[in-house]
Write a structure and sequence with these properties.
mainly beta; Immunoglobulin-like; Jelly Rolls; nine-stranded antiparallel beta sheet
């Protein structure tokens, strides 16, 4: 009985256990445990988990525990709820190991916690003021098979990251650190000279070995640097330690400032924008001394400016930290279409010798240049005067409502032989009319021959160098001159080195030349070059005088048959200069009311490209009688305009080459005569200077030439003609020489063009002074010299 009872109990227990296990298995299968995979996408504060859902759950609990704590129980709390798989765990601590579990939420029933997955977060990215170290930290080696990317950005916008390595050690040719200037590996690489080597990925330009690289400073607009480290599967090393700092991004000075598309009121300024700049500050100073500023976006600005004014411009970059220093300045001038001959409408005035007296310019009839056009604008009563040396004078005007009254005046010396009776009145220039020609026939009432000769300087005489004179001879008459003779007499101190004309005959004092068949109004020229002796054969301040005459039969005007030019020997000279042929001194008793002053303005293109057009301006001194002005010659076709005492010469389409490319063709000049007003006395001095404009550039102002009326030609007095600076331009030393015998230099002051004084010499006792300027900044300076008699002279000095 006991055995049966015992057997029954055993069977019942077996059935119960079997039933319980079957029931437990059934319950487990309704919410199966998920399978947690390894962690991925590990950062310094996050880990990405993904798992295999073995059932149908759509919600999960994710549990994050410190590494090494006991496994969780069903009742453990503190888990995160996720409805996505994979799931990103955030808010983790850098460089910390965590244990991760996940369980399925089956609608209020839960699976068991999954298998354990552990992961260690990365070190926190370096920050400003911190360190950047490899994955092994400061005491361990980096890991094999590393491929880590670290981006370091500044905490303050406008700063730039600077990474300075303290130590560096990686396996050469196998493990490399790559550096990028920006916030990703797609930014520009800051490369080393290393090849790809055996580094995984095969990219060149990485840093390896034990040579400490850098430092590295971001030039990216975001101020970031990115580092990517790759190592192979074998040997590793100590890695690196670097300091991270963040500095305000330097606001760099712009470069390449240039001007283009200049018109009468508009100019476009462009420059090279700098990194980090969000704009620019343009500073302009006009020739009237007014300074103003304009804020612009980076790289380009269109300026609306005042016509017929010159400007100096500079640009400063604007960055978050403020403004950079200004760029190197440029200077330019606003021009209208009268300056560059680009007006759409114009009047072209032409005076010609009407040989058949029909009032029409026929083929073969020559231009008449011995006079000037007189015109009024809108019946203003104020005359303007135009002169042409090639027959055609241009009037440019973009206002179609303006009207002109125009006539032609013949020079007094020719009024006996020619007449002009035609005038044009109420002439307008309608929009779209283009070029309108107006002709002025000149009638010869008394046939005659008249030879004229003119001697013009070409350069200035310097000891040991060469210079030249140009002889112009022309027929001012209406009949051909069958033959004539040019006689040239040189200064005794000079030697003739060349003559452009063949067939000359040398004489003891110069040469002669016999010409033939000089037609009506025809002009020809000869260029004569000389060698100037060295000191002491000649001295600075000595005068050299050359003379030329022309002889023909039956010449009706002998007054224009001779010409002379006197020039002062100088130590250096500006190729853009002005001089008067008497040499600076005129004996008062020898100069009559019939005599003229003969001025030459010389210019030279010392730039680097052709000058498309040149403008020369001369404001006549009040002691000169503007009504006696006469143009005598010019190197190129030129239009001359006189308004009151203001003279302007326009060389349109001159295309003057630079001296560096074509020295012989890079020069030009104008030559004119004018009388002083009555009443000049001994001791009176007439100053004159000119301004020369090449294209859109600001003017080059010539020397001031001073003509003094004296009792006799004695020792020279202290003035700009007796002072020379040599060499000029210079690099280190300049000699200041004074050829005035009766006055010494007392003080010397040198100024920058801004007015800042940079050198002073007081109580000088020497006639010649040497000044060391080697420590001066390169550029243009003004040298002010004061004599013992308190006479002041200012000269220009250029340092290269």
């Amino acid at each position: 009985m006991k055995k049966k009872l015992l057997y029954s109990l055993v069977l019942f227990f077996s059935f119960y256990v079997s039933f319980s296990k079957s029931y437990e298995k059934k319950e487990t299968l309704t919410c199966p445990d998920p399978t947690l995979n390894s962690a991925s996408a590990i950062t310094f504060n996050s880990v990405t988990l993904n798992w295999v859902e073995n059932g149908t759950a759509t919600l999960w609990n994710v549990l994050v525990l410190p590494a090494g704590v006991p496994a969780p129980l069903p009742s453990t709390t503190g888990w995160l709820v996720s409805s996505v798989n994979p799931f990103v765990v955030t808010g983790l601590n850098p460089n910390t190991t965590y244990d991760f579990y996940v369980r399925s939420d089956c609608g209020g029933e839960y699976s068991n916690w999954s298998n354990l997955v552990s992961a260690t977060t990365l070190s926190a990215p370096p920050v400003c003021g911190g360190n950047y170290v490899d994955s092994g930290g400061v005491s361990a080696n980096y890991a094999n098979n590393s491929d880590t990317t670290t981006t370091i950005c500044p905490s303050n916008p406008g700063d730039a990251v600077v990474v300075t390595f303290v130590s560096f050690n990686t396996q050469a040719s196998h493990d490399a650190l790559y550096v990028y200037d920006g916030n990703s590996v797609t930014s520009p690489q800051i490369s080393s000279s290393n090849p790809a080597g055996s580094v995984p990925g095969g990219q060149p330009g990485g840093y390896w070995g034990t040579t400490v690289p850098g430092s590295f400073t971001s030039s990216s607009s975001d101020g970031c640097l990115t580092f990517r480290f790759r190592s192979d599967a074998t040997i590793n090393a100590a890695g690196w330690v670097a300091n991270v700092t963040c500095n305000p991004i330097p606001c760099e000075v712009p470069t390449g400032l240039a001007v283009s598309n200049v018109s009468d009121t508009v100019a476009i300024l462009t420059w090279n924008s700098t990194p980090f700049s969000s704009g620019a500050l343009i500073t302009l100073t006009s020739d009237t001394g007014v300074t103003y500023t304009v804020f612009s976006g980076p790289g380009i600005v269109t300026m609306t400016l005042q016509p017929d004014h010159c400007y100096t411009a500079s640009v400063s970059s604007y960055c978050s930290g403020g403004y950079s220093e200004p760029s190197a300045p440029i200077s330019f001038c606003m021009v209208d279409c009268e300056d560059n001959a680009e007006c759409a409408e114009s009047l072209i005035l032409n005076a010609f010798l009407d040989s058949n007296n029909n009032g029409i310019k026929d083929t073969g009839e020559v231009d008449f240049n011995h006079g000037n056009f007189v015109y009024q604008l809108n019946d203003s009563g104020s005359n303007q005067y135009g002169y042409s040396n090639d027959g055609s004078y241009f009037i440019f005007d973009s206002n179609p409502t303006n009207s002109y009254d125009i006539s032609f005046d013949i020079n007094a010396d020719f009024s006996t032989y020619y007449t002009s009776a035609v005038s044009h009145n109420d002439i307008t220039i309608p929009t779209g009319s283009g070029a309108t020609y107006l002709y002025f026939p000149i009638v010869n009432v008394l046939p005659h021959v008249d030879a004229q000769v003119t001697l013009c300087p070409s350069g200035q005489p310097r000891p040991g160098f060469s210079y030249g004179n140009v002889i112009y001879y022309q027929n001012n008459g209406s009949q051909t001159i069958p033959n004539g003779t040019i006689t040239f007499t040189k200064d005794p101190n000079l030697s003739i080195t060349s003559i452009s004309q063949t067939g000359t005959t040398a004489t003891a004092t110069g040469f002669t030349y016999d010409f033939t068949n000089l037609g009506p109004f025809e002009s020809r020229y000869l260029l004569v070059n000389f060698a100037v002796p060295t000191i002491p054969t000649v001295n600075l301040g000595d005068l050299l005088t050359n003379n030329v005459t022309v002889q023909i039969a039956n010449d009706i005007n002998l007054a224009n048959n001779s010409s002379s030019v006197t020039q002062t020997i100088v130590g250096s000279y500006d190729p853009n200069d002005k001089m008067e042929s008497h040499g600076g001194k005129i004996v008062h008793s020898a100069f009559t009311s019939n005599d003229y002053l003969y001025y030459t303005i010389q210019f030279e293109n010392t730039g680097s490209a052709d000058a498309e057009f040149v403008k020369v301006q001369d404001a006549l001194d009040y002691q000169l009688d503007e009504n006696t002005f006469e143009m005598l010659g010019a190197s190129h076709n030129v239009d001359t305009k006189r308004v009151g005492t203001q003279l302007t010469w326009h060389f349109y389409n001159i295309n003057l080459p630079p001296t560096s490319l074509n020295p012989s063709e890079s020069h030009g000049f104008v030559y004119f005569r004018i009388k002083p007003k009555a009443g000049y006395a001994i001791g009176d001095m007439i100053p004159n200077r000119a301004s020369i404009y090449f294209d859109y550039n600001p003017p080059i102002v010539t020397n001031q030439f001073e003509t003094e009326f004296v009792l006799t030609l004695g020792n020279p007095t202290f003035n700009t003609n007796t002072i020379s600076l040599y060499p000029n331009p210079t690099t280190d030393m300049v000699a200041i020489s004074n050829s005035a015998a009766n006055d010494k230099i007392a003080t010397v002051v040198i100024y920058e063009v801004s007015g800042k004084r940079v050198y002073t010499l007081n109580k000088n006792t020497l006639r010649d002074i040497n000044v060391d300027v080697s420590n001066f900044a390169r550029g243009l300076y003004l040298v002010e010299l004061t004599s013992e008699n308190n006479t002041k002279v200012t000269k220009k000095l250029l340092l290269k």
